[in-house]
Amino acid sequence: MNGSSLRKAAGAALIVLAAAIVYFSWWAAPGNAAAGEAVYKDHCLLCHALNGQPQFTAEKVSRTSIDSLTERDVQAKSNADLKKIIVEGDGHMPPVKGLSHREVVNVIAFIRSLKK
Ligand code: HEC
Asked: Which of 26, 61, 82, 110 suits a disulfide with 36, CB 3.0-4.6 Å?
């Protein structure tokens, strides 16, 4: 390799590295609770009230008791566990479809904001 192609290769590697860093910081950026509240209102309110308490009718329809999302054992779950519940469903909760990664991260931040 001569000097110029070496520089080109190094330049290309730098661009790939920069793109990876940008992508990773987007992926790993902390959730925004205010944006998450909007997601929650659109996708969760049918079954979970805005304050995290269960919706009475949802409990009746699914014949189960739904934990308040403010509760300690819900708040103790990792973000990965919460994401799994939201995206894949959990017991009587159906999966919530059509959310982007960002929307899930934000709605989790909103759930965290309900912690007592
Ligand atoms: C169609 C009704 C429904 C919708 C919509 C819904 N959920 Fe649920 N959710 C449930 C039910 C029912 C449970 C209890 C599941 C069980 O214990 O079997 C539950 C449980 C949960 C839990 C776990 C609580 C625990 O005890 O561990 C979390 C967290 C949760 N929901 C978050 C969400 C979020 C966030 C959304 C919106 C993105 C959402 N849910 C939308 C019905 C729903």
From this structure: 110
